[in-house]
Predict the structure.
Amino acid sequence: MITEIKIAFRYIFSRHSFNFITIINILSLIGIIVGVSALIIVISMFNAFQDIAIKQIVGFDPHIQISDIPDNSSVYNKINNFLKNNSGVDKFATIQNSRVMFFKNNSLRVVNMKLLVSDKKDYFDFLNEHLLLGKTSVSQIGNLPCILIGANLADALHILPPDTMHIIFAKNIEQSLLTYQLPTFSNAVVCGIYQSNVKDYDINYAFSSSPIMQKIVAENNLQTSNTIEIRIKDLGKLESMTNNIKSNFPECKVESWKDLNKEYYNVMQFERIATTSILGLIVLVAVFNIFSSLTMTIVEKRKDIAVLRAIGAKANFIRKIYLLEGSIIGIIGAISGGIIGLALCYGQIHYKWFKIDDTKYIMDSIPVLVRYSDVIAIVLISILIAILSAYYPSIRASKFTISDNLREE
């Protein structure tokens, strides 16, 4: 094998002649290095942005949601007992979801209100991490219920804690249309403002754990839907946990955060695949250059191949030389590209070469998250493709007729 490697290196990097084939070999090597490093850098950036987006979503959406629960107390009890005895569950609570209107200073907004109706008072504690003003622990001030709203909603209503705002229900609007009177409304106090950095949440969702609010909703015969929201300890077990709940309660609708944000999650996955495919073309072009250079090398080295065969070299020996040529270019290019890609990624992580305005965004530089599984996959696939590109030229070179080529020379 040592002889084949020496000959392969001589054919790739000739010390005595610098011809067109050598140029193609160098360009192929550079192409693989650039392609692999670019893939690693871009995928690492996508990993970071996806990780940030998922953390924002998971920070507000339940990890698992159980809905369409039969109107039967025994089913609720079974679900509650199941979740209490499940070691993988961190917190869970029954949430009443309703659509209401918030009114303040001639500004009106339709909002999804999440009302905590179970005794799990600490379920909304996750909002503390995103709290800008106020408190989450206060459920009422005097005889008025407390509500936590998003920063964009607070800006639209021109409201701050502890301001009072009006809540208008669908029943109030219906009555006002029938009686030609202004709609009646209920009052609530804004106890806090959160900022999730997700626009849809910050303007469309409000949270309350007030028993008074439960009473107001019941009095207004508001159309509501009850769900059980679950937060688990290990997101890596999300799929298994979801499937476990589905199998135990087939009569209910069980969804993970991925199901609740299916379109958004699919877009992220599509962007990743599309970008990877486009950048992968750089590697494919470089690999095609390897195929072309090896094919031209066969024509240029006909005499050498014929002489090697004449002095006893077998067809397998010739085939190994050309396979090694493709392998050497692929290995050197992929490993070099991997090292350069990792170096640039860690340089951005530690030194933050490319900064962005942290007053407008939630980060001060372009984020990068290196996953070694991605790096290893890119390097190995690049090497494999380079080896495969050398397969046809190696077969063709091993089938050269000795007498014909020596006679032509």
About this structure: The longest helix spans residues 20-60.
